[in-house]
Amino acid sequence: MMISSRGRYALRVMAEIAGHGNNEYVPLKEIAEKQDISLKYLENIMPLLVKNGLVEGSSGKGGGYRLLREPEEYTLGEILRTTEGSLEPVTCTSKATGPCERADKCHSLPIWNELSELINGFLDNKTLKDTMEI
Q: Which end of the chain is more exposed for a tag (fewer CB within 10 A), N or C?
């Protein structure tokens, strides 16, 4: 499994916004400049974050984006699943694809299940606040 640039950038954007506090709208242009990410690329990421209730957007003078919760209330897993869709290392551990038809015969499935639990558990126990403390 490899996290795409969209997922990595979403984490950076969320951390940048979090650094401004929950009540302050941060202009997308400012985020793009500070994080050295193309404004056009961010314009594709932000609707996902808004649609999934991670941030709120406001247009016009004084507009931009802000968090809807405290940084410690966002898990990295939640943010990455919003942008990546899944954090599963292989398709046979994904609930979206349904049970594997070879599950009862597969000797490697327990390994994949354990890896899935490790990845998801790790990212679900790290918060946006944790990224700000590094």
A: C
Show pLDDT as tens, one digit a residue, over the chain (134 residues): 789 999 999 999 999 999 998 788 999 999 999 999 999 999 999 999 999 999 999 998 889 999 999 999 999 999 999 999 999 898 888 777 777 778 788 889 899 999 999 999 999 999 999 998 76
Q: Give all strands (DSSP E) within 1-134, no chain letters.
A: 55-58, 64-67
Please enumerate in sequence order all residues whose Cβ is within 8 A of that of 121, keeping only pairs 6 or more positions apart, or say none.
none
Among 122, 58, 59, which residue's Cα sits nearest to residue 89? 122
Residue 78: which H helix or E strand, with range? Answer: helix 76-84
Instruction: Give the angle subtended at the CA of 30 by the CAs of 68 and 14, to the nearest 5°.
Output: 35
Strand partners, 82: none
3-state secondary structure of 26: strand
Predicted TM-score (pTM) above 0.85: yes
Tokens standing for 74?
């966002």
